Amino acid sequence: MTEDRPATQPRPGGLWRPWHFLVVVGLVIGDLTTKSWAWQFWNQGPQPVLGDWLSWQTVLNPGGIFGLGRELTLPLTVVRVFAVVLLFWLLGRQPRENRRGSWTLSLLLAGAIGNLYDNLSVWMPWEGNGEVRDFIRVDLGAQPGWWPDVLPWLFHPWPIFNLADSFIFIGFVLLISGLAVVDLNTGKKEALE
Question: What is the pLDDT of residue 171?
Answer without folding.
Answer: 95
